[in-house]
Description:
The structure holds two protein chains of two kinds.
Chain A: E1 5-6, E2 14-19, E3 22-27, H1 32-37, E4 44-45, E5 52-53, E6 66-69, E7 74-76, E8 87-89
Parallel strand pairs in A: 2-8
Antiparallel strand pairs in A: 2-3, 4-5, 6-7, 6-8
Chain B: E1 6-9, H1 13-24, E2 30-32, H2 54-58, H3 62-75, E3 80-82, E4 86-91, E5 94-98, E6 102-107, E7 110-113, E8 117-119, E9 132-134, H4 135-145, E10 147-148, E11 153-158, H5 160-172, E12 176-181, H6 185-195, H7 199-214, E13 218-220, E14 223-231, E15 235-243, E16 248-252, E17 255-260, E18 262-264, H8 267-271, E19 276-279, E20 284-287, E21 300-302, H9 312-329, H10 336-359, H11 365-368, E22 375-377, E23 382-383, H12 384-394, H13 399-406, H14 419-430, H15 434-437, E24 454-455
Parallel strand pairs in B: 1-2, 1-7, 2-3, 6-24, 7-21, 9-17, 11-12, 11-17, 12-13
Antiparallel strand pairs in B: 4-5, 5-6, 8-18, 14-15, 15-16, 19-20, 22-23
Amino acid sequence: MSRFVRLGETDRPSLTLHVDGAPIAALEGDTLMVALLSQGAALRQSEFGPERRAGFCLMGACQDCWVWTESGDRLRACSTLAAPGQRILTSQPEASWPTHA
Amino acid sequence: MADPRIIIVGAGPAGTRAAEACVQAGIRPIVLDEGRRDGGQIYRRQPDNFTRPYAKLYGTEAPRAQALHETFDGLKDRIDYRAETLVWNIADGHVRTATRTMESALPFDALLLCTGATDRLMPVKGWQFAGAYSLGGAQVALKSQAVSIGHKVVFMGSGPLLYLVASQYVQAGADVVAVLDTAPYSARIKALPDLLAVPSVLWNGVALTLALKRAGVMVRNSVKPLEILGNVEDGLSGIRFRVGAGAEQTIACDAVAMGHHLRPETQLADLARCAFAFDPVTRQWLPERDGDGRSSVAGVYLAGDGAKILGARSAEASGRLTALAALGDLGLPVDKGEMASLRGDVGTYAKFARGLATAFPWPAEQAGALPDEAILCRCEGVTAGDLRAVMRETGAKEANRAKAFSRVGMGRCQGRYCGLAAAELIAAQADIPVEQVGRLRGQAPVKPLNISIGDTDA
């Protein structure tokens, strides 16, 4: 089930990115949020409650749309463009701290 | 002063006009903006490879949007424009900026804060479900990405944006189920004398409502939102509400765009130590400024909706006026006649804005009436009942003290979306005026930073 509905501008070249290991198709110029919510109902799991979350403000103020790269960088899905070959995780990868033995 | 260093924060209507005035005076200002492109939120630009024409994107404001964008394009070679740059603190005479990878500290002789606004939200039980969006967010989805936030969309709240965005959705082909306005229709009649200050904008608003009704959209006034229905897995499924003292009704939908007009982004003014005062008309704390945009701190100037919500047209005028004031203070020649005329424009828009505040009042009483189980802070799932319990246990009645005990306002949005409602809830619970609750202090960094960020010289 998709959450967002495309109302125009669909005549753009498509690209493929990976979300949680699975390939999804998006259009050039899509934000990650639009790419993910054009084919899913939510972006991530709330850390503080039982519900799924799908962003809120779309202007970089609420921080409700966080996703991660496989190397652990946090991205705001509303203000990051989808790019070919991107590998996105919808839950935070386990932090690996350097050991100083 | 040979070469004054002017920093402008924000590249929306106010920031663009301020930058233009600086360039015309022979100064090359630094323009810092968080967006990928200029334009700000209301005149947000779509990505390069989108093709919708101005008229389709901005409706009646298309000529203004186009003029603003063309002005900025013409300035690009003559300003130090830094896009996708967050200003996260102002301290020790420096503006602290961060990009995704680099941190800088920039000194300034004059700092113009044109930080714009975000939606003012009144929580409704269930607003944490996926599919609830801010009204401005719903507009960004359409304007900058050509998508609707859902298959069946309800617009709920109040303010001019409610009707504007709903009608933009209808025109773009979205399925708009209803517009639920918390304001009574009588409030608009009461506001007419002030709204007549800018008849063209008033008429635009009337035309929008008529167009919505012609399109068959249910439009209701005096709405009492009761609950956003939904489930934790699939998100929202409907809205439960009442009209006036009428019976409860339920509408099915999978998205709601909610908001009560706007609130200024004042964190940077706060960090710059500007004095604030309570504005009883909007029930918001606003940074103090003189008629030309000077804050209480020498060298710090405030323009546009980031200082007070007066709208995009006013922001263009106040952006230019404030830049002229700064240039004059730096000893550069400025046209006093033009400044007087800009002051007049800003005054007219201020009258209109007062009319809007009367026509679409902030429903403060809704906060006090929130059921205990309703989530107040979306970031961390803190409920209205949690905050009330903290007040009973600790006696906290001041905004920052209540925040420290309850975490309301301490989450990752830093109180942008719950802070005003939390203050109203505290005021209702403690039976004190909301100004006695005070305001949440701005904290650096004003938005979360990446921990891996590196240093660079200015």
